[in-house]
Specification:
CATH class of the largest domain: Alpha Beta
Number of strands: 19
Helix content: 40-55%
Oligomer: single chain
Strand content: 5-15%
Distance between the termini: 45 Å
Length: 750
Amino acid sequence: MARSTAAGAEPGVAAWAHLAGLWHDLGKFRPGFQKYVRQEDDAHIEGKGVAQKEKSHSAAGALHALKSLTEGFGKDGERAGWLLAHLIAAHHAGLYDKTDLDARLRGSDGADSEREWREAVQACARLHPDMLALPGTLDARSALLGLPGLVEREELAQALGVRMLFSALVDADFLDTERYLNPGKAQARTGFPPLCEYRDRLDRHLDALAAAVQAAGRADDSVMRARSRVLADCRTAATGPPGVYSLQVPTGGGKTFASLAFALAHAVAHELDRVIVAIPYTSIVEQTADQYAQVFGADALVEHHSQVEVSADQETRHTRLACENWDAPLIVTTNVQLFESLFAARTSRCRKLHNLRRSVIILDEAQTLPPEFRQPTFDALRLLVRHYGATLVSCTATQPVLTDIRRFDPRQNVRGLTRDGERPRDIVADAEALYAALERVRLEWPASFGEPVEIPEIAERIAAKPCVLAIVNTRKDAAELCAAVDAVGGERCIYLSAAMCGQHRADCIARIRIALEARRNGDPSPLRVISTQLVEAGVDLDFPVVFRALAGLDSIAQAAGRCNREGRLGPRGGRVVMFRRPLPRLLDALVKAEQATISVLGNSRPEALGPEHFTRYFERWYGDFEPDRHGINTLLRASPEFALSFRSAADAFRLIPDQGLATLVVPHPAELREQALNALRSGHPDRWVLRALQRFVVQARERDVRRWQSLGDVSEPLPGWFVLENALRYDSRLGLLREDAPLAPDELVF
């Protein structure tokens, strides 16, 4: 049986972790389970194969915790029993709502659970009676109050404490099973270099880059000086105490490696365990991981995407191989993985959570957090910093408001990442001076924000530029603008959107970079790119002119980061031209972002944006959203009986509404894809197969995918993984097409 490692250093936490590890498999003493386990080779997934009544074993330990603790400590013991019951009863099926847990243990299903407990205790008493007793040193009340943040009555402290314990329990359980069934895989988890070696490798890499800049005669360029200063400030700030830090650097200021330099040096200085880099978009995770792999080696980091996971009722040994517990020094992941893990119920999503302790967490492009989830996310992150030894780095060109906000309407009040409105520590000493040093573009606004421009008009203006990037808000606009510019300019544009798989987009971006380099070397061939906003975050492109459909100020700043990025055209030598296009009302967040920009600008038309613009913008934009619109904190409100609705909160906390979406492997030509597909179709894919196929995946409506499947256009070789067999449904330029409505309004954003 697994012994759970403690999710924190507090004695109370260690006591509950010990008891959860001791009792979680109590039900396996039952004769029925012993018969079952001798017949099956994968006893880790409850509810499959042999009759459930014989296989079920998690209720026994949960009931034993309730009964023994109540008998030993009265009311305090009953409360502690519910804490352990949440952990033990859920260690295969995932965390319950308290009402459902109560029904399972004492209500409609209580008779079966009682029988399971009685059979298990009788067998255990004969073989290992010492396992059933409470530790003599246990004080239930003190141990309950040992949950971090509970005495202070901080929001979400009770729920996060339970989740941390649950994470430690299920991860220990997975790892024990793995050591027994696959010793080689367990051994392969070890062998990462120490964090000090990561720090030293990165320092050598950055020193080599600086030497190359010096050799090229560019060390005194304003952009290079600014990047050097950002890196120096990051290295200096790394010795500061653990806490919340803000790294506000204009796009193109070298944040990717400078923030990592801070994180690694800070982790080494304070003997922290790992660095976790959370990025908004999967495509940028891939790009960032590739950059890191060039420095540290591909085997030295974990790159974790949500696309490798399937639903709980489809989980198998093979799909579980794609789940990471983040027990590695360097993790590159998505915001969805990080934030949803803080509120997840499934074991596969929760098992990494305890490894957020004593970590440096870099939130890249922190402004992309959906504002309606802001309060529960901020509360959970603040707890990680205050009670679990984490350091948080908010890394962005357009720093959102991270402190408390008090409004006339108390429902709009927001608790920030720090206590009582205290400001995060600024890593860069003088952000305003840095913005001035990195002013590489001139913003050009429409005289009026009234009537939107039509596609033919903006296409004429774009086609007149030989080298230009145009960014719009919807796939519909991107496709129509692409066709219109083709017709006017006489040359085919390059198109980018999330209708294309990651590898397809990467191939196009590689073509763009080659063409940009050729133009810098005198090639006069036109280069026109039409893209949705996916090109804005982390894609290093350098155009002399960028056209941008009106959007939030943060998006406009990101677009400006693709213009004169290296400063070769001199201060404000690049042009960023704004225009307005109509937005479907169903794209509520984009509409509100556009309106916030118009409100902040008023009658002004600034040629450059500074920190003060973004402060006003985010205050205005956040004011349009309830900070906890989905009631996450209410579902997880602390109570003496641990009446927490974990599963309902997990269902409500969806940063990207993915209901009704399916993972579709599309036919983009690549040898690796064919190898991985053959392995997938064999029905026994290794972890590398699912990771390799991530680059060939597009998210599509499940109802469309199922219809295509009925027509023979789609196969499903593995539950939850669909393969597009009909290549006519995937265009070599525009990506995935839909037969009935290729660009329906609710699929327009990337």
